[in-house]
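1st attempt posting a full record on here, be nice pls
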Amino acid sequence: MDLRKIFEPGGRMSELMPDYECRPQQIEVALAIQRALENKTHCLAEAGTGVGKSIAYLVPMALHSLTGKKVIVSSFTLHLQAQIVNKDIPIVQSVLPRPFTVALMKGRSNYLCLNSLDIETPNFLLIGDPLFERIRQWSRETNTGDVAELGFTFPNWGDICSDQDMCRRLECRYFNECFYYKARKAASEADIVVVNHSLFFSDLAIRMADPNGGVLPGYHCVVFDEAHHIEDTATKAFGIEFSNWRIHSLLSKVRRTRGIGVNPERLQAIEDLNKGLFDIFANYEKQEFFLEDVYSGRRRSDIENAVHMLCTLLDGLNSELAEQNTEGRPELAERLSGLRRICARSSEDLFGAFFGDYEDYVRWVEKARNGKFVTCILRCSPLEVGGLLSEHLWRRVETAVLTSATLATSGQFRYVKARLGISDCVETIQDSPFDFQKQCLLYVPQHLDYPSDNPAYADVVANEMEQIVRASGGRAFLLFTSYRMMNAVYERLSERLPYVLLKQGDKPNEQLVQEFRDHKGACLFGVHSFWEGVDIPGEALSCVVIDKLPFSVPENP
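the predicted structure (as tokens):
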């Protein structure tokens, strides 16, 4: 099919969409992808803001899916996933001569587990959680079990979401109603499956170890939107990660399990060792650092001894759970089996993260503060993923499309191809159709002090943002590089601005975006998820303010 008949003036797009504007750059991206599909090769496409990348790749990919080829579309954020499914794909459906089927697939923890909900109900009723009854009501109404449907944030979602280790699979009385397995079934039957990078590369890591494994259906072609993130995502997926929260979650599950007798001293010892070990990282002066940076003098032996002791205690807990009397209590037996799997996996990953003999891997620690709790994540990941991607992805799919507004370096794809292990492919670079000299105003204040953690700096940022937002009449995204600064500025402006103010974390991201669209003049305070992949057409979003550029810190490993 001639794609120009869809995109050019007088074509299907302009016939069905009154506001459609033909963009030559969009046509060029679509044609490049079509060439890659025809030649069963890959495509790198850089397209600036306003080109319409999603429609440009969806049209040729949807046409290709109608020939019996399974297509995966992967985005970096859950928000862009939803935008592709709810906004872009209906447009493509309307302009193609035949319908195609689509499924949305998210990571397992996004889905409610009805069995876990049953098990945890007595605990939540006992503590009188005011949000829990809303969860129970929603569980009876939802068709997807997707946490994104909630109109609020439930802090204990981790206790009731689908979990690989706790899942009873075919033995579960809710298996036929299971939201997670229904999503997998829908994905297996769809022409196009929309996923996110984290799920895609986690699935690929499973397939690398077991060709018959994985959670996604087999596929012929894949599109990576926001492809500048895939190296980092793959690096994390192909390695091991272990956080202090992981042990905390395990102990919480064990302590909430009714009808067992576990040595409380063992649980306390695990908790104390976990805290002592990760406190070393939490108290280190840097936010990100190599594991070797922390080792000095006796500290190495102290850390390594603590790891060995913690692994031994986890193995002991595993054995103790195996000895529990579960006669006549099959559901308890299944729960204990799940807890034992968590114990075994935790011990294995903890040991591997510290001592695993992996060639050309690097170990480092990341820290993030959530209120008073500091989450420390130890990562053990490959230094380079290009070779792994070449062997296990690029050589095994017919066509992979990588697209982003920032993919090339100095007008060339040489660097990204080397990093990702891609050889010959179709290449196209398309500029933005916007005339930024005439359509955009850039304001960089020169009078502000250097960014700092001093509360007085938050006052300065709030005052500056207030003036900007008043000048724009709201209609603004206020973007931050940390939750701490976002919350501090929000607190200062919430009583001073006459607009609807929305803040990331108060509600699911998709709901925040919809409310932003619905309220003329609204302001949305956000971090990470709102820096890219959000499409607000027209004048509803006319101003973007950022507190500082989100460069990686110099000590980032």
